[in-house]
Amino acid sequence: MSAKLPKLPIYLDHAATTACDPRVVEAMLPYFTEKFGNPGSRNHSFGWAAEEAVTKARHQVAELIGADPKEIIFTSGATESNNLAIKGAANMYAKKPAGQTQRGHIISVSHEHKAVLDPCKRLEKEGFEVTLIDPQSDGTVTREMIETVIRDDTILVTVMWANNEIGTFNEIPEIGALCHEKGIIFHTDATQWVGKMPTNVKEDNVDLLSLSGHKLYGPKGVGALYVRRRRPRVRLMALQEGGGQERGFRSGTLNVTGIVGLGKACELCAADMDSERQRLLNLRNKLEAAITNALDVVQINGHPDKRLAHLTNISFGFVEGESLMMALKEIAMSSGSACTSASLEPSYVLKALGIGDDLAHSSLRISMGRWTTEEEIDYAAEKIIEAVNKLRDLSPLYDMHNEGIDITKIEWAAH
Ligand SMILES: Cc1ncc(COP(=O)(O)O)c(C=O)c1O
C-alpha cells in the first residue's frame, strides 16, 4: 500500500540547517525596527532596550547549557566560535611566543568538522604540533583514546560532542575530567548536540563550547562560545580587535536581532527537549526498520545507541549516493560525497571510521526535525526503497552479488 502523500518537497536535512521557528522570528522582529538601538549606546533608552534584550538572550543561552550568563560570548556562528576557542586558547597558553617552533601540543580527531580541523591546521603552520586521532569504527571517541596521546606539552584538547554526518557522540564528560586532572584546556564543538541533548558545562567538565543558532531553529549567522570563568578561569587571545565588546573577546557591534533569536530558540529547545527526542527517535526507528526490512546490503553507520535521535546515516551497497539523491529530488537529504571539489570525494568522516570508498559513496544522511511528520517518514521510506531497487536493477555488480560472486575478489582486466 502506498504511503499517504505529504506536502512536497520534504526536508530531511536538519543537520545542515533548520528553519527558524515562527516564535523565534516573532521575538526578533521588533529589534529590526522600533527597537533598533545599539547595546553599546549607554546613554539613551534605545541602547538600554537593546542591551536588555541581549542580557535576556545571554540568560536563555546560559540556561540551556548550565552556564553562567557572564560566560557566554556571542559570535557569528559555530565556525567563528571554534576559531576563537582553538586559536584563542592555543595562542594564550602557548609555551613559546609566535614565530617559534614547539609552541605546544594540541589533540583533536580526524572526523571533526572543517571548522575545527582547519584552525588546527593553521596552528600547525604557526609552530604548534597537532595530533589527530581516528575515531573507533563506530564513530565514537573515548577518554582512554585521548589519554594515550596526551603529552607533557599538551595545552589543548578539542573533541566534538556529536558528529554532524553520523550523529554519534563522544565521552565528553570523561574527556573533560581527564583534561582537568592534567591541567589542559578542553574545547568541544557542540553544534549538533546543544538543544537536542541535556547539557551542563559545569558537570560535563567543559571549558569552551561552541554552538550555532541555525542548527536549533534559530537564525543563521549567530552563535555563541561558552568560556569557563572558574576552575579554571579560561583566557583567550581575541581574533579581532576593536570596540572591546563581549568583554574584549569579540569586538564588533552585537547582532541584536540574531542574538534575540538565538536566545528564544534556546528557550524553546529546553522546553520540550525530552519529548521531542523521543518523538524523533520513534520516527527514526520506523524509517530504519522499513529500509532494513525491505533492502539487503544496507549498513547503518555509527554506534547503534550513542547517536543523536533525529539523524541516521545509511549506506546502500551497489547504489551511488548522488544518483540516489537525484532520483529523490522531492526529498532533501545529504549524501556521503562532498561536492566541494571538482571530483566527488567520499566523506572523510565515513573514511575515518574505516568505511571503504564504495560504501562511503553510497551513503545518505537523513536528519529529521521539529516539523517532520510520520507521513513524511513513511513516504520517504517508500520512495528510498523504490529508488534503490530501480538503481540496483541497472547494476551489473548487484547482479553478480546476487549470483554469489564476491566482487571484492575480482581482478578486473587492466587496459
Ligand atoms: C559540527 C559542526 N561544527 C561547526 C559547524 C559550522 O557552524 P556555522 O554554520 O554556525 O558556522 C557545523 C555546521 O555545519 C557543524 O555541523
Helix/strand layout:
Blueprint: E1 10-11, H1 22-28, H2 45-65, E2 72-75, H3 78-93, E3 105-109, H4 114-125, E4 129-133, H5 143-147, E5 154-158, H6 172-182, E6 185-189, E7 208-212, E8 223-227, H7 256-271, H8 273-294, E9 298-300, E10 311-316, H9 321-327, E11 331-332, E12 334-335, E13 337-338, E14 345-346, H10 348-352, H11 357-361, E15 363-367, H12 374-393, H13 396-402
Parallel strand pairs: 1-11, 3-4, 3-5, 5-6, 6-7
Antiparallel strand pairs: 2-8, 7-8, 9-10, 10-15, 12-15, 13-14
Helix pairs in contact: 1-7, 2-7, 3-4, 8-12
Bound molecules: pyridoxal-5'-phosphate.
Characterize the structure shown.
There is one protein chain. This protein has 2 domains: 22-271, 3-Layer(aba) Sandwich (Aspartate Aminotransferase, domain 2), CATH 3.40.640; 273-404, Alpha-Beta Complex (Aspartate Aminotransferase, domain 1), CATH 3.90.1150. Helix content is 37%, strand content 14%. The protein is built from 13 helices and 15 strands. The strands form 4 sheets. A 7-stranded mixed sheet has the order 2-8-7-6-5-3-4, sandwiched between helices. It has a 4-stranded antiparallel sheet with strand order 9-10-15-12. The chain binds pyridoxal-5'-phosphate.
